[in-house]
């Protein structure tokens, strides 16, 4: 009988060290190593010169100043060549006025997409699906998203995940559903009966001992 562990693909999972890669991009060769100390959003798109991908790349580019404020570098990727990427982003600038300012990896040999499990063969044997890997300054994979080729990502959600991770790390708290910076945060569950009883006496907003929220005083929960 094959154990679940044996069946595992070896692909990165939340909490793993992000696999290091080098690759050619629209801004010259990069290595993930060069980004140590920064947050990174590594995202793949299926193909240059396709409609949904174009809407996504513009939406991410428009939010890039917000990512920068939070110390986040954006890195795009598809299996198209550098000349294709260049032609695409020049066309986007010419037609829409949006100058794409982050690097896009040309993963023609599919090295990075294979390393990160970005090709889902039942969707396409040759092109990446829409993946997002959020990597922290210690180069640990902190969150992953996978969308099919036909559905454009919500780039506000990618930024919200960054805000959530940075706030959770800074304040040792958890983040409730649909949280936005400034909203109350969740206090992690108590691990003893004594702590469960203690927290009920605090000035927290509690549904019961296992679900208590608090406001982050003195700031809006946004760490940048
Ligand atoms: C698109 O970006 O529109 C797209 C790309 C690949 C497959 C399907 C849609």
The ligands found in this model are: benzoic acid
Portion in strands: 15-25%
How helical, in percent, are the residues?
Answer: 25-40%
What is the succession of H and E elements?
HEEEHEHEHEEHEHEE
Label the CATH architecture of the largest domain.
3-Layer(aba) Sandwich
CATH H-level superfamily title of the largest domain? Glutaredoxin
Number of helices: 6
Mean pLDDT: 94
Word description of this protein:
It is a single chain. The chain is α+β, with helices and mostly antiparallel strands. The protein contains six helices and ten strands; from the N terminus they run αβββαβαβαββαβαββ. 31% of the residues lie in helices and 19% in strands. The strands form three sheets. A five-stranded mixed beta sheet has the order 5-4-3-6-7, with helices on one face. The protein has a three-stranded antiparallel beta sheet with strand order 8-10-9, with no helix packed on it. β3, α2 and β4 form a beta-alpha-beta unit. Benzoic acid binds next to α2.
Structure summarized in a few sentences:
The chain has 224 residues and is of the alpha+beta class. Helix content is 31%, strand content 19%. The protein has two domains: 4-153, Glutaredoxin (3-Layer(aba) Sandwich); 172-214, 2-Layer Sandwich (Antioxidant, Horf6, Chain A, domain 2).
């Amino acid at each position: 009988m094959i154990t679940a562990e044996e069946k595992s693909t070896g692909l990165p999972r939340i909490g793993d060290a992000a696999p290091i890669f080098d690759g050619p991009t629209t801004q010259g060769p990069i290595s993930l190593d060069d980004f140590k100390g920064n947050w990174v959003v590594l995202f793949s798109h299926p193909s240059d010169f396709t409609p949904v991908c174009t809407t996504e790349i513009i939406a991410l580019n428009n939010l890039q100043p917000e990512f920068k404020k939070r110390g986040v570098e954006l890195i795009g990727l598809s299996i198209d060549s550098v000349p294709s990427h260049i032609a695409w982003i020049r066309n986007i600038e010419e037609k829409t006025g949006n100058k794409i300012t982050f690097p896009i990896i040309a993963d023609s040999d599919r090295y990075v997409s294979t390393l990160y499990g970005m090709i889902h063969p039942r969707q396409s044997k040759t092109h990446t699906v829409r993946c997002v890997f959020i990597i922290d300054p210690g180069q640990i994979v902190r969150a992953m998203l996978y969308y099919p080729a036909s559905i454009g990502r919500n780039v506000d959600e990618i930024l919200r995940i960054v805000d959530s991770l940075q706030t959770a790390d800074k304040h040792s708290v958890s983040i409730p559903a649909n949280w936005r910076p400034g909203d109350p945060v969740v206090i992690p569950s108590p691990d003893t009966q004594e702590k469960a009883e203690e927290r009920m006496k605090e000035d927290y907003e509690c549904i019961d001992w296992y679900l208590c929220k608090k406001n982050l005083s003195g700031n809006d929960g946004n760490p940048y």
